[in-house]
Amino acid sequence: MASKLPHMNVVFVGHVDHGKSTMVGRLLFETGAIDQHEIDNFRALAEEHGKGGFEFAYVMDNLKEERERGVTIDLAHKEFKTDKTHFTIIDAPGHRDFVKNMITGTSQADAAVLCISVEEGIMPQTKEHLWLSKVMGIEQMIIAINKMDVGGFDEAKFNKVLEEVKTQTKQVGYAEDKVTMIPTSGWTGDNVAAKSDNMTWWKGGTLLDSLNKLKAPEGMDDLDLRIPIQDVYKISGIGAVPVGRIESGTMKPGTKIVFKPSAHTGGKTAEVKSVEMHHSEVPQAVTGDNVGFNCRGLSHEDIRRGDVGGPESNPPKVARAFKAQVMIMSHPNVITEGYTPVFHAHTAQVACRFDKILAKLDPRTGNVTEENPDFIKAGDAAIVLIKPTKPLAIEEQANFKQLSRFAIRDMGATVGAGMCMKIEENWD
Q: Pfam families annotated for this entry (predicted)?
């Protein structure tokens, strides 16, 4: 039965215009998840918008504004199955204005495909996406060196970008055996699902082969439920339908859930009536599944994006203060105590204050190099006491790794990232 296939969420990331959406559309077409007549319709629509050649991108770019601008703004989810795995693809925006959606997408994924144009190579956004993928807990990475058709399917061009990319992945901390690199063209379909006749020099597999080799997460279904809420829809005749990705545990009708912080309700408890995946009702959903669910006794005003659902016996933690290990990626000045950027943790965005800088660390070994430093700067790793300005649901790394991670953003850029090591004070 298809439902027995292991399920994986894969996020497609990369610099704007490096061909992510086209690659995803091509992959869905080649695996039979969408058919020819749909592509023909998208082609006509793309030409109408003066965007000839964007038909595969249109598969994922659902919003009118995205179609007219030719950039991906929000997250899109589509599914396809191979004989080995059931995949949900998350297409994340590359444009720097939309990084917060990219962070949410990356925090929901088990693996990432990073698209890099062979003509442009590594761009600032490519570095940021690679770095954020690592920090948001993605251990398995496929790098598609894309637009090979534009580069004349030239092996030398591929090898040049390949070397750049190897240096970069090493710097970020990816183990070599966790990264696969492939020459592709999403536009022509070369090396996406079938071996390319234009690149006979390439002895490795296709993008689809690499996806099939990814390992799905195991052993999370037995833990207590954790589901960060991405959105809450109000559906007439049904009521509130929260949606999100199950990070651990299982959910089925009858499950009792408490939502935290639910700032204005103090943590609302509700009973699950039904669970849906990809518009059809399922008897139960497990770790890694993107679900919508309907609850008894819950209005759409009771919960919001950034809340986390879990059982009453072990509810999600809400921190008033927590100790975190942070890595500062880029900041024009030094960072001192009192600095208050925005933390993106799972689907929540909360301004948090650097209350005390406790220690500076060697980023490679994790050893303390200085106690109570006056400041930290780009390139530094540190242990910091963090105080959220309002209740933030976050977990300790030892208990729920996926919900301990966060990205730090300020002035429209990613400043750094880190993880919660210990909650010092709960928000009652």
A: GTP-eEF1A_C, GTP_EFTU, GTP_EFTU_D2
